[in-house]
Amino acid sequence: MLSESNSVLFWMVAILLVAYFCLVVFIGKKGNSHSNSMSGFATARGKVSPWLVGASFAASYSSANLFIGVPGLAYEYGTSVLWYTLGCFGVSWIGLLLFAKTFWRYGKKFGHVSTLPEWLGKRYNSKALQVIVTILILFNIFYIVGQNAGLATIFETIIGIPYEWGIVIGVTITVLYIGLGGAYAQMVTDGIQGFLMAITSILLLVSLFWTIGGGFNVFTELTNKLHAIDPVLTAAVNEAGPYNSALAIAAVQFMLFSFILMPHLLNKILSIETEEELAPFTFSAGLVLFFISALTVLAGLGARVLFPALDSADSAIPVYIIESFPTIIAAIMIVGIISAILSSTDSLYLGVTTSIGNDFYRVLAPIFNKNLDSETLDRRSVNVAKISLIFVGLLSLWISLDRPDSLSILIQFSFSAIISGLLAPITLGYFWNKATNYGAIVGVIAGAGLYVVFTQFNVIENIYIAMFFASLSSFVAMGIVSLLTANESHKELVLKKTT
Hints:
Layout: H1 4-30, H2 38-43, H3 50-77, H4 82-109, H5 116-123, H6 127-137, H7 140-159, H8 163-211, H9 218-229, H10 246-258, H11 263-270, H12 278-306, H13 316-324, H14 327-368, H15 374-400, H16 407-431, H17 437-456, H18 463-485, H19 488-491
Helix pairs in contact: 1-8, 1-14, 3-7, 3-8, 3-11, 3-12, 3-14, 3-16, 4-10, 4-12, 5-6, 6-14, 6-17, 7-8, 7-14, 7-15, 7-16, 8-12, 8-14, 8-15, 9-12, 10-18, 11-14, 12-13, 13-14, 14-15, 16-17, 16-18, 17-18
């Protein structure tokens, strides 16, 4: 039975969610006209303002990890988690600035590509590589599971909806509007969600002045109170957590620098129509990302002071919001966090399913049916992507029913496996004229394979260090194989610096 205050919160959140659901479905229907072709479904190139695409990039970056998982780690391990926050904005944004223009120019050189696997396939002139990278991207299903669990945790903690029903609600909403409007719906809704998330993050920061106290010395007060609970909570390195050494912290920064290479993020760059639009895109992405990444973790630390005995660290932010804000403000913030989770989930669904349609079916179908014309192939590819959306949604729902121990660790495992395989082929593909298709294939398999071996067989327990050494191995393997297989024709695929 809900208390009176919880009942009011429940109905406020329910009303706001219904309004939000109607909005995203409307946007999805509006985007339906742009999603009849594979290019339109995957990127909606030129149909969305670069400012909104930038906010969408930041929203897709954030996910349940920054609003639930990382504050949960801060609740558990203290200020050492700030190393992660530092990298989220500073290091990742630098990575975006370095990679965006060249990645976009390559996309133009190869014609309008729609996905990262297609980009790599054309860079290395390899359909096999395109298919292999598509298979690797299926690791994102575990990322989606983390988002589903985060959303269900919000529903369960705040308004009393059972965890299982929270999973069903989240999957249904996301699959519906992505199926209707493709990339257009995803980017417009995510752009709006990005600004909502920034406002929510600012409110979390401001709240510390009345929850923790100390006036303008609020951060000193917060540090002192954490230290009184346990001095380890204010240490720069916490040996009990994932940020347990200088090497682990360096590996975190390496991972966050590389994170912008995730397929569901790089696809945002492919949606930009002109090179001049890259400037507002990157500025908008960096500004929104700063607010989202730098502020939420502080509320996780505040929750440890105010509520030191929570059963689940991942519930730190939901509990903090309920106890620290008036009901109407709390309801708006909860919807903001729900939108944060949905914004990453929809990008991941879109990335996985467009790759299935564009990089799996579209590549393999002509092998079995040589009479397919390009128009029919494109139409069927879109249909395959939309149908696969339903199956991926059901698969993620089924896996999500078994609640993960830590959202952050699950999410970071999934994207670290992908980055370990993709980092070498993308970066060497930019600059090295001897990078070959055989080298890239070996690099993808070696990087992702070794990461799974390192983590699943406890060869390297720290997931960040495991990713660093798996990625390094990928570079070495790709470099050796490329040197053994390089010829003059590979140099023609390198982007000329004068373009």
